[in-house]
């Protein structure tokens, strides 16, 4: 009886928690207006969190940390993952070509934790990094890694760009010890 859905279980008949339904609504907003994927860092963060939890549940049924129950179908999980990845790709498409100065400025914004300045991607990265700070939330950390990795691949970051990010990572690693 542990897989029952309904108000007392916290899941709806399809196996979604309230948070999963909210994330699904965020995906629906982005589906209806693609521009939201590149103008609302918080909305994209919700979608990317849902993607990470759906990936976990797809890899190991029931591993979604209360986000979804085991009744959820693999096709639903694949759809959430696909739509979230599409939203991320769309949001990053405007940043396919950035200069080394962009990378330097982004690291400075991250150091200052200033989510109010910069372009959309800079604001997104600051928002995501601030979500990791002081927590042991591996989902938030995976999202930062995924967004940054995808961006660096898409923009063709070179060795000098990588050095900037490596130096930032090293300062974060030593400051968290």
SSE class: mainly alpha
Specify the number of helices. Answer: 7
Beta-sheet strand percentage? Answer: under 5%
Query: What is the β-strand count?
Result: 0
Describe this structure in words.
- The chain is mostly helical and 177 residues long.
- The chain has two domains: 18-93; 96-175, no CATH class.
- The chain is built from seven helices and no strands.
- It has helices at 18-32, 41-59, 74-92, 100-112, 120-132, 138-154, 159-175.
- The longest helix is centred in the first third of the chain and has 19 residues, at 41-59.
Tag the structure with descriptive keywords.
64% helix, disordered N terminus, mainly alpha, 177 residues
Topology:
Elements: H1 18-32, H2 41-59, H3 74-92, H4 100-112, H5 120-132, H6 138-154, H7 159-175
Please sum up the structure shown.
The protein has about 180 residues and is mainly alpha-helical. About 65% of the residues lie in helices and about 0% in strands.
